[in-house]
Write a structure and sequence with these properties.
By secondary structure, this protein is of the alpha+beta class. 47% of the residues lie in helices and 7% in strands. The protein folds into 2 domains: 3-91, 3-Layer(aba) Sandwich (Glutaredoxin); 101-206, Up-down Bundle (Glutathione S-transferase Yfyf (Class Pi), Chain A, domain 2). The model is unreliable at 1-11 (pLDDT under 50).
Length: 225
């Protein structure tokens, strides 16, 4: 997108508060985009072609030595990686981060759960089924990924049968964290028909102010560099 186009839509990369380096189709990057939109924070989006090696070139590695997206650039030039760390940083002091100490700990508990017991199975299965050829050797991983992913979904279902959200009394960053890959789990071969509480939670998340879909690129501050 040109500078002229950016100005015509009312924003520019230099005027944006934050810059996000990410991939539109990544659930982890979606967490950051959803948090920014719901918190109404200005940002520029720089699309990174991870498959094309753009996270491994010297320029990007100077920003994030781990060579992964999403990556948040702060106005002062600092860089922050890891999707859940970024969303917590953005949400601090706002409506998406609990004020109660116990509820903050509960939110963190679910975000750690997402990274250790959920994302490695549900997100990886989605990647294999959505982006790799049907005859790819990694398809052999799917039975184990599905077994572990269903375990995670069962834990979520049990919680949601008694609670409306994962972030405490109200919607927040733990819900963003878990929604990102759960709502598209069917793309990884998961059948969600038996998880009524999870599917009801999907609708509560979608009803939140400022919600945008994973597939949406109609964000308020989007800039392709």
């Amino acid at each position: 997108m040109s500078d002229k186009q950016s100005t015509a839509r009312g924003f520019s990369r230099t005027a944006a508060h934050y810059t996000v380096y990410g991939m539109w189709n990544s659930g982890n990057c979606y967490k950051v985009r959803l948090a920014l939109e719901q918190l109404q924070l200005s940002y520029a989006w720089v699309e990174i072609n991870s498959a094309g090696g753009e996270t491994r070139n010297p320029e990007f590695l100077a920003k994030n030595p781990n060579g992964k997206v999403p990556l948040l650039e702060l106005p002062d030039g600092k860089y922050l990686s890891e999707s859940n760390a970024i969303t917590i940083y953005l949400a601090e002091g706002g409506r998406l981060w609990p004020t109660d100490r116990w509820q903050r700990a509960q939110a963190l508990q679910w975000m750690f759960f997402e990274q250790y017991s959920h994302e490695p199975y549900i997100a990886v299965a989605r990647f294999i089924m959505k982006y790799l050829p049907a005859d790819h050797p990694r398809r052999q991983e799917l039975p184990q990924l599905h077994a572990r992913g269903y375990q995670a979904l069962g834990v979520m279902e049990k919680h949601l049968q008694q609670h409306r959200f994962f972030s405490g009394a109200a919607y927040g960053v733990a819900d963003i964290s878990l929604f990102a890959y759960t709502h598209c789990a069917e793309e990884g071969g998961f059948d969600l028909s038996a998880y009524q509480a999870v599917r009801d939670w999907f609708e509560r998340v979608r009803a939140q102010p400022g919600f945008i879909a994973l597939s949406s690129q109609a964000t308020r501050f989007q800039v392709h560099a």
